[in-house]
Design goal:
- The chain has 548 residues and is α/β, with parallel strands linked by helices.
- The protein has helices at 30-35, 37-43, 78-90, 109-115, 119-122, 174-189, 226-236, 255-261, 295-311, 328-332, 339-351, 381-392, 397-407, 410-413, 444-449, 454-467, 469-473, and strands at residues 11-14, 47-50, 54-55, 67-71, 94-99, 103-105, 127-128, 148-151, 156-159, 166-168, 194-197, 245-249, 271-273, 317-318, 356-360, 475-479, 486-492, 496-503, 509-512, 518-522, 529-530, 533-536, 541-547.
- The strands form six sheets. It has an eight-stranded parallel β-sheet. A five-stranded antiparallel β-sheet has the order 16-17-18-23-20.
- Helix 6 (174-189) runs parallel beside helix 7 (226-236), helix 8 runs parallel beside helix 9 (295-311) and helix 12 packs antiparallel against helix 13.
- It starts with 10 loop residues before the first strand and ends with a strand.
- Bound molecules: alpha-D-glucopyranose.
Length: 548
């Protein structure tokens, strides 16, 4: 059975704990999502990817799962979930669940049995004996510190690539693979229409040797059996229904591997979610640094991935934002002088590409970084760990706060801004994390009322994709590759070309197209082209159409 290509679909990501609170605990819930479905239907999205809301001690905001088949009471009940699935279905919206199979919470029953010495369950995880009285190797956790935690009663260490509360599963054990397939099938039976697989390319561990040139990731990213394991998961679960949409979150992956993961012939995943384009503001490949983004690198990465993935007919998620990234408008746009123009430009740059667009909650109204100004305002384990690490490196408080202010995941996690009123209409009570003070002007209520809002522009982009076979399936061809301010490409369809021009800067710039074309969409009210020459104003972006 052939998988659908999902090129005509748009996904909206909801971070449930920050979307809408209905029971007054300052924490979003499933009922809150039901309340906001009309809004999402109006936007025109097809799927809702929900971050994990399963039973969890919430050490990593739900990515530490203690029971994959139960709802964490903070988010509601199974009845609430059934109501959500039903209400979404009535609006032709499918739900996409987040499957965290690289690790479980240490509170999961399997890990608890392992700790009690049960060999079957010990073999669900990766336990290693000390080597010469030390940790088995020198790898560094993604959240800082070593990846090994010693369990005195067992006299062994367990592996955790992420937080100490997230023990890595042993995917070389067929029982683990079967358990995970069964979880997927459980949710398929409930009417779930899609799955996002968390850090999925870290699941097949290779050798456990010391890494003297890196943090260890080269031994487990895109590990030795990963393609085989994903093919197995596909065959044993979601692949049995070709209408199920899947996406794998890829950590430190390569184009070559992604071409395989998402190649329909290989029957692994529907598409990949990779982060290369979101590392162009890292100094020396280090996240916790401050550097303006490198536009030429960004452009080259887009071109390489777009053309590379199309070579093998592999699908790609198109995204600027998610719950792990600072807000794109603050990062790649100008959220002070040109917030509306630059938010629309960024959206257009991505939505006209080849793949499936993802919108992260609040992006469609131009939400920005939060502006946190003290460490007490942060909640995320990665951010608070790095605060300590940067401090130990000798950085001063102001510099650390500037770095966190630009890079922390909490920037994306502050409550959805529905109104200018109390707590942005998110909750009646003090929210679990600070609301961005700019909700006074940036909010859904204002966005809906304004036909020129960022929100209205997103609706147009979504409609355009749905109406255009060229946007869905046209060949991606880079244009103006040497231009230092403009991202330009065309999509070549059966009898037309769609040309996209995006000025990534706050100054005017000119491009020569050597051809005439009609305007389809622009983020400025008027647009002019003379003799194939276009002058793009600050952050101006246009989509042109030319019959061929
Ligand atoms: C993924 C999630 C992130 C989480 C990590 C560990 O990257 O998106 O939020 O912290 O995996 O599960």
């Amino acid at each position: 059975m052939k998988m659908e290509d999902f090129a005509n679909k748009v996904v909206y990501q909801i971070y449930p704990r920050s979307f809408q609170d209905t029971d007054g605990d300052g924490f979003g819930d499933l009922r809150g999502i039901v309340e906001r479905l009309d809004y999402l239907e109006d936007l025109g999205v097809d799927y809702l990817w929900l971050n994990p809301f399963f039973v969890s001690p919430q050490k990593d905001n739900g990515y530490d799962i203690a029971d994959y088949r139960q709802i964490d009471p903070r988010f509601g009940t199974m009845e609430d979930l059934d109501a959500l699935i039903q209400a979404a279905q009535e609006r032709h919206i499918g739900l996409m669940f987040d499957m965290v199979f690289n690790h479980t919470s240490v509170e999961h029953e399997w890990f608890q049995k392992a700790l009690a010495g049960d060999e079957k369950y010990k073999n669900y995880y990766i336990f290693k004996k000390p080597v010469d009285g030390h940790m088995p190797n020198n790898w560094v956790s993604k959240f800082g510190g070593p990846v090994w935690e010693y369990v005195p009663v067992l006299g062994e260490y367990y592996l955790h690539l992420y937080d100490v509360s997230q023990a890595d599963l042993n995917w070389d054990n067929p029982d683990v693979r079967q358990e995970c397939a069964d979880i997927v099938k459980f949710w398929m039976d409930k009417g779930v229409k899609g799955f996002r697989f968390d850090v999925v390319n870290n699941m097949s561990k290779g050798s456990f040797e010391d890494d003297f040139i890196g943090d260890g990731r080269r031994f487990y990213s895109d590990g030795p059996h990963i393609h085989e394991y994903l093919h197995g998961l596909n065959r044993a679960s979601f692949g049995q229904d070709p209408s199920i949409m899947t996406v794998g979150e890829m950590s430190s992956t390569s184009l070559e591997n992604c071409q395989k993961y998402a190649n329909p012939e290989q029957e692994e995943l529907g598409m990949v979610f990779n982060f290369h384009h979101l590392k162009v503001d890292y100094e020396n490949k280090q996240k916790w640094t401050l550097k303006p983004f490198d536009f030429m690198e960004l452009k080259e990465l887009f071109n390489t991935w777009q053309t590379g993935m199309q070579e093998t007919n592999s699908n790609q998620a198109l995204f600027w934002n998610c719950h792990d990234q600072p807000r794109s408008l603050s990062r790649f746009g100008d959220d002070k002088n040109y917030p509306v123009e630059s938010a629309k430009m960024l959206a257009m740059a991505l939505h006209m590409m080849r793949g499936t667009p993802y919108i992260y909650q609040g992006e469609e109204i131009g939400m920005t970084n939060n502006g946190f100004d003290s460490i007490e305002q942060y909640r995320d384990v990665e951010s608070t760990n790095y605060y300590e690490i940067l401090k130990a490196e000798g950085k001063d408080e102001d510099e650390i706060l500037a770095i966190l202010g630009a890079k922390s995941r909490d920037n994306a996690r502050s409550p959805m801004q529905w109104t200018a009123g109390k707590n942005a209409g998110f909750s009646d009570t003090e929210p679990w994390i600070r609301v961005n003070p700019n909700h006074a002007t940036i909010n859904v209520e204002a966005a809906i009322a304004d036909p020129d809002s960022i929100y209205s522009f997103y609706k147009k982009l979504i409609r355009l994709r749905k109406e255009s076979d060229t946007i869905q399936h046209g060949t991606y061809v880079p244009l103006l590759e040497e231009h230092e301010r403009v991202l330009a490409y065309k999509r070549v369809g059966k009898d037309e070309e769609i040309i996209v021009l995006c000025n990534f800067y706050g100054e005017e710039t000119t491009v020569s197209l050597h051809t005439e074309a009609d305007m389809l969409l622009s983020n400025y009210a008027d647009f002019q082209m003379r003799d194939g020459e276009v002058t793009l104003r600050p952050y101006e972006a246009v989509v042109l159409r030319k019959a061929v």
